[in-house]
Amino acid sequence: MYSEKIFKEFRHPKNIGEIKNPDGVGKVGNPVCGDVMHIYIKVGKNKKGEEIIKNVRFRTFGCIVAIANSSLLTKMVKGKSLKDAEKITKKDLIKGLGKMPPIKYHCSILALDALRKAIQDYKNKKGKAVK
Amino acid sequence: MYSEKIFKEFRHPKNIGEIKNPDGVGKVGNPVCGDVMHIYIKVGKNKKGEEIIKNVRFRTFGCIVAIANSSLLTKMVKGKSLKDAEKITKKDLIKGLGKMPPIKYHCSILALDALRKAIQDYKNKKGKAVK
Amino acid sequence: MKRRIYLDHAATTPLDKRVLKEMEPFFSERLGNAGSLHSFGQEAREAVEKAREDIAKAINAGQEEIYFTSGGTESDNIALQGVMKANREKGKGLVTSAFEHHAVLHTAQHLEKKGFDVNFLPVTKEGFVELSEVEKALHKETVLVSIMHANNEIGTVQPVKEIGEMCRERGVLFHSDAVQTVGKEKIDVQKMGIDLLSASAHKFYGPKGVGFLYKRAGVKAEPIAFGGGHEKGLRSGTENTPGIVGMASALKLAVKEMAEDNARERKLRNKLIDGCLEIKDGWLNGAREPRLACNAALGFDFVEGESMVLMLSDKGIAASTGSACSTKSLEPSHVLRAIGLPHVKCHGSLRFTLGRNTSAKDIDYVLQELPKIVQRLRKISPLGGK
Amino acid sequence: MKRRIYLDHAATTPLDKRVLKEMEPFFSERLGNAGSLHSFGQEAREAVEKAREDIAKAINAGQEEIYFTSGGTESDNIALQGVMKANREKGKGLVTSAFEHHAVLHTAQHLEKKGFDVNFLPVTKEGFVELSEVEKALHKETVLVSIMHANNEIGTVQPVKEIGEMCRERGVLFHSDAVQTVGKEKIDVQKMGIDLLSASAHKFYGPKGVGFLYKRAGVKAEPIAFGGGHEKGLRSGTENTPGIVGMASALKLAVKEMAEDNARERKLRNKLIDGCLEIKDGWLNGAREPRLACNAALGFDFVEGESMVLMLSDKGIAASTGSACSTKSLEPSHVLRAIGLPHVKCHGSLRFTLGRNTSAKDIDYVLQELPKIVQRLRKISPLGGK
Ligand SMILES: Cc1ncc(COP(=O)(O)O)c(C=O)c1O
Ligand SMILES: Cc1ncc(COP(=O)(O)O)c(C=O)c1O
User: Fold this and answer.
1) Taking Cα atoms as reference points, which of D250, D267, D172, D170 lies closest to residue D210?
2) Whether the CB of D77 sits within 6 Å of ligand 1
3) In what order do the strands lie in the sheet with D295-300?
4) CA distance C379 to chain A (A)
5) Contacts with C, D 282-321, CB within 8 Å
6) I need a labelling partner for D129 at 20 to 30 A (CA). Which of C149, C327, D269, D365 fits?
7) Which whole-number Å values give the CA distances from C66 to C50, C53, D327, in the listed order?
8) D149 and D44 share one domain
9) Do the domain assignments include residue D386?
10) What is the pLDDT of residues B69-90, one digit of tens each?
11) Are residues C218 and C279 in the same domain?
12) Helix, strand, or coil here: C119?
């Protein structure tokens, strides 16, 4: 039903929890639908001066695939520039996780949504701070 | 499917064959339908002066139940007065043979028909002889 | 070897070794097709008819009222499709409940699409179909009422006898999906006023792939599949002799050992429920009784069922979120929705179903592991107080 | 012990002991419901999917094109009912032959009653469906052609590849009931242009109560029964894991040993036919080739089949009058009628079907006993010269 990668990611999830005073937070989903994801990011700069995701954490309520997606996505974006992080697609995540029933694809979308919201949240705050 | 009695009667049929110069012959059925019965009788008299079936034989082409019916009926009527023989019913035969699929009831009717025809044949001949 | 505890007996049971023994001669030696006239065939025929007699006795039916099928799903389909289509001249009304197994629910929905008039009765928060609801739903054109004997997810036992009596009085046919109760609860189709009843052997320690339908003599039903005219034309296909023999053997054993099995399972089950209710924000779905002795249908806030099932599995414990089919759907269980559980709580459901081999030690082990798992998942969850 | 010779392999075969061995772990130990998420369930799921892959390979199909069913009858019904109902927008035309198994014939007749337009093609005296007849029957509204691969009574192998190619060219779906050929004749659904194919495990030394339907990807079909949505919704019901595993194992063995088995059986079968033809007024039904290697469908004037079967059985020999179902009907075989055998000759038919364990000695024994039986019955018969 699920790939070994999904099970492995679920069994050993990385980056669980919250970040105190995060630079951005993305909250998506609805407990009624059975999936809720919160993603927290801390933004820093790399040597080239690009903004990168210095730290990222998640909390997820949901099925195995939802948790596996959250973990994989946070692993993938950690240390990446915001620009590159935003480029990650549903396809990348599904490729990373392997075989799953198509009805579970939405979990990947959900995770990406949470991340994008977190980045947007960071940008909004920054914008406000600048103004 | 069939009772043990049917199998037994089929396996050890009595009164097979023809009678030379029979007093009556009854032929029923049609090879096209899968059942043909010929019954031959020899008529005599008992001490009371009643006409009885002194000897009876059959030839049957047909299923197990058809052959079992032929054998049982001939056994039942042997030595019986014509009057009593004519009184035998489908029910008696079915009772004598035990459980069978209802679609096979017609085999009993066929056997009785053959017997009645044989008796009628005897009566017809006698009538002619008298005239 | 790793400890493995199977607590998903409502999904399927192991084949009882004693049953397998009864089946064995029919695999290769007594191999005949029960439709054949020769001695091999007649041996098979005898075995099939003996099984039919044994099964009939176990539910107080007549031998000629038992029809062999491939399982509960097929039995349910023949009962619903077959009866509704064969009794069109009486009407188009079918009454069933909102928390039937999918084999009944989806068949009823199919019939609805085909123009039948289907009424899905609500159920109480406690998990019962109410007699008054059945009564309200009955009308002149009602042909069939179909209410399950015990629910497969929450285990609540329905007032089948009362429903059966009411249907009888009103001249309406009554079908009960008894897949979860045959061999586990007493069934007497006469006393309970049941006209049709579905069963599946693999739920009572019999083989998979075989079941039966009880259909009272005189009840009209059409087949859903056509062929050699087996089972009096209601269900064609070469008889699964070993399966049928195994089903009868399993049912006889189950009936004989029912009281004992149930007493033991109920005690262990209560211990399990009580232990689970000590976990914060945990609850029991459905009333505690009348409920199948084996069933503990629980729920835990802020965590999701599938995740619990997998973590339990990693500890060697087999449990379920509800029915075995729910892994295919995103929708929360229709059963939990029907008893009025809020959506968000539906996702946190966890079902243990005990069996013949369940021991007190097994329950202790579950009660030792489960709280840790719930806690661990709650740590991942964004919901609830941390 | 009394000698017992089983020569009714077209009715059913013994379960191969090697197959039973493969099934055994799935009865009680690896017991899970393949729909369950826990490790027991996942083991079952893996076994089921492995079996699907093996079966797909055996007929050169894709794994996702194999659907598990309860047997040949159900597969035939899903193929015919399911495809005709799902493709109504294309048309109502079904083309089949007059000598199909009842699982196809009666299903086609049912569809005809429901308003579909069904064409029952004639067959030749030799026992073949002619390509030209298929061609004549095809029209714009033809949805499906269903022609069996080999006939179960007379064993003649149909020109399935040619029919498949023609159907493909004409854009018509093609189903073949291959219940008698799977594991006995080479099947390549690609090369043969087959869109749907039915099989039943107990005909190739697998377990009873399980079969499969091959349905080419993209072919639309409706289920005939509803439930938990197993087999992608086409066939609901808890997977019969031991049965499915056994079916795959049996098919792999059968394919591996096919050439050898067929060569041996054909030789013995020819000896049997030749011996029987020495009996006065005996004949072979259908052409001698192409015919299943195991099949000897004979006939004898002036005697009736059922009586021969019982007398042979008393000598320990299991034979048949035709299909196993014919014991239920008074009508002479529709297959023999279809090949134009006169009514009176239909009643005198006798079918031997050989198998893996048939020996030359067995055939000698039959050839020693059969003439005596025919003679004895002819003595009872009023027909023929005495
Ligand atoms: C050609 C053919 N089709 C279909 C079937 C039906 O198979 P089953 O009885 O296993 O359902 C059979 C055998 O009975 C058969 O020989
Ligand atoms: C209440 C109920 N009805 C019907 C079924 C269907 O039985 P099966 O899957 O054996 O066809 C099940 C189990 O799956 C069940 O629990």
Assistant:
1) D250
2) no
3) D282-284, D295-300, D349-353
4) 7
5) 306, 309-310, 312-313, 316-321
6) D269
7) 12, 8, 21
8) yes
9) no
10) 999 999 999 999 999 999 999 9
11) no
12) strand
Report the chain A residue with the minimal C-alpha distance to residue D38.
A1
Q: Is residue C385 part of a domain?
A: no
- Which residues in chain D are closer than 8 Å to B61, comparing Cβ atoms? 302-304, 347, 380-383
Q: Are residues C78 and C193 in the same domain?
A: yes
Torsion of CA C298, C301, C306, C311, to 10 degrees: -90
Residues C99 and C213 in one domain: yes
**Active-site residue, D325 included:** yes
Q: Which secondary structure element, helix H or strand E, spans residue B96, and what is its range?
A: helix B90-97
Same domain for C137 and C278: no
Inside any domain, residue C386:
no
What DSSP string runs through A38-107? EEEEEEEE-TTS-EEEEEEEEEEES-HHHHHHHHHHHHHHTT-BHHHHHH--HHHHHHHH----GGGHHH
| pLDDT greater at residue D362 or residue B106 | D362
Question: Can you tell me the distance from the alpha carbon of C215 to that of C197, in angstroms, rounded to the nearest whole number?
Answer: 7
Q: Are residues C366 and C271 in the same domain?
A: yes
pLDDT digits (tens, 9 = 90+) for C206-235: 999 999 999 999 999 999 999 999 999 999
Q: Both C141 and C129 in a single domain?
A: yes
Tokens 């018969």 -> residue:
D381
Asked, for residue D385, whether it belongs to a domain, the answer is: no
| CB of C353 sitting under 6 A from ligand 2 | no
Residue C42 with chain B: CB contacts under 8 Å: 1
Number of domains in chain D: 2
Q: Which pLDDT score is estimated for D384?
A: 86
Cα atoms in the 13 Å half-sphere on the side-chain side of D369: 21
- Indicate whether this complex's ipTM tops 0.90: yes
Q: Is B51 helix (H, G, I), strand (E, B) or coil?
A: strand
Mutation choice for ligand 2 from C9, C68, C69, C73, CB with most ligand atoms inside 8 A? C73
- Scan for tokens 């062929």, then name that residue: C227
Are C172 and C144 spatial neighbours (Cβ–Cβ below 8 Å)? yes
Q: Which of D167, D276, D325, D346 is catalytic?
A: D325
CATH number, domain at D344? 3.90.1150.10
Same domain, yes or no: C24 and C112: yes
- Whether B64 and D344 lie within 8 Å, measured CB to CB: no
Question: What pTM does this model have?
Answer: 0.96
What domain range includes position C368?
Answer: 5-13+258-380
| CATH code for the domain in which residue D67 is found | 3.40.640.10
Q: Would you call B33 an interface residue with chain D, using a CB distance cutoff of 8 Å?
A: yes
Domain boundary among C227, C253, C279: C253
C80-94 in b/e burial notation, b at 16+ Cβ within 10 A? bbbbbbebeebbbbb
Buried b (16+ CB within 10 A) or exposed e, D113-132: eeebbbbbbebeeebbbbee
Q: How many residues are given for chain C?
A: 386
Q: In Å, how far are A88, B111, C276, D143, D200 from D174, measured between CA atoms?
A: 45, 49, 56, 9, 19
pLDDT digits (tens, 9 = 90+) for A20-43: 999 999 999 988 888 899 999 999
User: How do residues C51-108 score in pLDDT, each as one tens digit?
Assistant: 999 999 999 999 999 999 999 999 999 999 999 999 999 999 999 999 999 999 999 9
Question: Cis before residue C332, ω within 30 degrees of 0?
Answer: no
In this structure, is the dihedral angle defined by the CA atoms of residues C2, C5, C10 and C15, taken in order, positive or negative?
A: positive
Determine if ligand 1 sits within 6 Å of the CB of residue D193: no
CB contact under 8 A, A31 and C343: yes
3-state secondary structure of B36: strand
CB D196 within 8 A of CB D187: no
* Contact present, D145 and D153 (Cβ < 8 Å): no
- Quote the DSSP letter at residue D150: B
Q: Which domains does chain B have, with CATH numbers?
A: 4-123 (3.90.1010.10)
Token readout for C342 is 């809020």
